[in-house]
Write a structure and sequence with these properties.
This protein has about 250 residues and is α/β, with parallel strands linked by helices. About 40% of the residues lie in helices and about 15% in strands.
Length: about 250
């Protein structure tokens, strides 16, 4: 097997979720879905431009057009939803990470809507992520790098059922708004107090150690160089690569 390619057991779990290879009206025989997916994984892992795709995988334009077609059709989201049907909700963790935007990733129309912002490190995109107790991804949101963790974090948590669950996060999420939300849902807050809080709250330091799992998740997806640095102008394309990487984390 060539490096980065999907294993047989992983392929068996998702192959039926992909659209039919042959169009109803016929035409030229289509390229094999598995080979196309392996080509997409190669681009994601290496961070190389589509045009640098090895000839072994066929025409780069064919692979790219299928990647875009599946993205527009919501195939990636559907697969992620399928593989993540049994999360461990004993606790959830939330955090964010910064991704530098390469010069080739800037300049798209509607820049404000492409999840690119200017922060201390220059042009950046921020990935806000929620994972389960095992560090498997549940949902994510892309924003510009200047967006504060707690603002988007509150919006993500408010859309989830947190009843009697442990919520692990770092000090960036220690805001009255988030703490009030957790209290309303009878969730257990495992969030250290900011140092400038007049009244320091108690929190379980042993449970908090499990928060390293979300850092491990970010480490796994940043093995995909297409995510460690953003080369894509469009947020939807970058999101598709992140969804693909999240699928592979669940299938690992």
């Amino acid at each position: 097997m060539i490096r980065y390619e999907i294993r047989d057991d992983q392929w068996e779990k998702i192959k039926d979720l992909l659209p039919p290879e042959r169009k109803p009206q016929g035409g030229r025989p289509p390229k094999d879905h598995r080979k196309m997916l392996n080509a997409m994984l190669w681009v994601a892992r290496t961070g190389a431009p589509w045009r640098d795709l090895p000839e072994y995988y066929g025409s780069w334009s064919t692979v790219y057009s299928r990647f875009r077609r599946w993205q527009i059709a919501g195939i990636w989201d559907r697969i992620l939803e399928h593989v993540s049907i049994e999360p461990d909700f004993e606790s959830i963790m939330i955090d964010a990470t910064i991704v530098r935007v390469h010069q080739h990733g800037s300049g798209a129309k509607g820049g404000a809507f492409q999840a690119i912002g200017r922060s201390r490190g220059g042009l950046t995109t921020k990935i806000h992520e929620v994972v389960d107790a095992l560090g498997n991804p549940l949902r994510f949101v892309l924003t510009g790098g200047q967006c504060h963790d707690s603002v988007t974090g509150y919006e993500m948590l408010s859309q989830m059922d947190l009843t009697k669950r442990q919520v692990l996060a770092d000090r960036a999420y220690d805001t009255d708004r988030i703490l009030r939300l957790l209290k309303e849902q009878s969730a257990v807050s495992v969030i250290p107090s900011k140092k400038n809080r007049l009244k320091q709250r108690k929190w379980d330091k042993e449970i908090y150690k499990e928060r390293h799992l979300i850092e491990c998740f970010f480490n796994k997806v940043k093995h995909y160089r297409r995510l460690a640095t953003r080369y894509d102008k469009l947020a939807c394309t970058f999101k598709a690569f992140l969804t693909l990487a999240s699928i592979m984390v669940w299938l690992a």
